[in-house]
């Protein structure tokens, strides 16, 4: 046994003497004190631990983000990118001659009694307009299907004139169609039809979000098909520049201006987005004021991904492809659609109803929205605070899931929640400790398309412009009348004398 141990010790000493690892030769060197051997052993152990920790750190970094993102900027021909979907939302939500929201609100503040029709319309419009908690409402927790009919009946008419795309006159009514958004009824153009965005189980109101054009020749990931011609949908500009853009004039009658619904702000909100994305005009938009000429310079940005990245899992590449993650309401995945669906599910979980603009599966006869085995309805004015609270908490949830630096986000959300009277005792610490039972992890989409706009605007003296056109028309008519009088006093007299021998013309 001793011979075997001696052989092992000698073999280990030989390894130490020949090893290229620094320090090992001192551990196996003969006639060295035990303290020196122990010292070198601890030095080697510390170095080995440091290397192991470095390897572990690099591995964890690779595990969290194994893909190196390299933004290689390259120009793309403008005709390969669709013109952005344009969503226009009037700030006035009702026609004054049908329902005057300002007058009814003043009656409410004075404590006057309203007739049943006014009271019902005001209740419904309180979901769209800025909610005043001091006004006495019925606080109905749910609204029936009639809500959509009333909002549709009292909406202001949308007058678009002089539509030009690439200097070619176009029919505005065929380009823009109504759509329900967080800002109420808006009008969108160059957006895919609802049948190409939502699944079949999602029910829509009347002909809203419906176009007669098909977007089968374009996808977000692959762009336009090779066989797609010039007259393709979504439409595309064939060249850059203002002359090749979309031009239109919005005519706003005085009767369509309301000063109480949206804090006296007049004009229109405009959102530019991908044709596959549901717009959020309450979050990202620019404004077109009245009596202004607004020009938007659009800069499209298209993000594509290498085919080699597809072999990685979504967790490692940190993004989804359009057909990779199924959604309940949408046919294809986008980051915006995922957030809207998650907000819908979370609002349903907290409030047992959903907001009027959220996608839902709806039984028309029962005026109910079906979600799994449960049935809920459209949230009423009694659930406004609950819906706001759900949205705030959902934003916190998204920020925490996205690994953002969320201390500022949490403090901002806590401030918003403290303003809700029903949550006065909900503190910042409660927000950090709160856990949400919601399976929602919205990653960015791997291939994306978004549009940035730079706005310039100037005053438009449209009264003078119309006056000039009116005066020009009147002047032309006056000149024609004078020429007609001159004709009858000169040329016609001479011609009658030659033809009939008398200046009065032929005898009757």
TrEMBL record:
Key words of the record: Ion channel, Ion transport, Membrane, Sodium, Sodium channel, Sodium transport, Transmembrane, Transmembrane helix, Transport
Organism, scientific name: Asbolus verrucosus (Desert ironclad beetle)
A cellular component annotation (GO) from this entry: plasma membrane
Gene3D superfamilies assigned: Acid-sensing ion channels like domains
Protein known as: ASC domain containing protein
Topology of this chain in the membrane: Multi-pass membrane protein
Subcellular location: Membrane
GO function terms (MF aspect): ligand-gated sodium channel activity
Highest taxon above the source species: Eukaryota
Main location: membrane
PANTHER family from the UniProt entry: AMILORIDE-SENSITIVE NA+ CHANNEL-RELATED, AMILORIDE-SENSITIVE SODIUM CHANNEL-RELATED
Family statement drawn from the similarity comment of this UniProt entry: Belongs to the amiloride-sensitive sodium channel (TC 1.A.6) family.
InterPro entries for the chain: ENaC (IPR001873), ENaC_CS (IPR020903)
Membrane-crossing residue ranges in chain numbering: 38-59
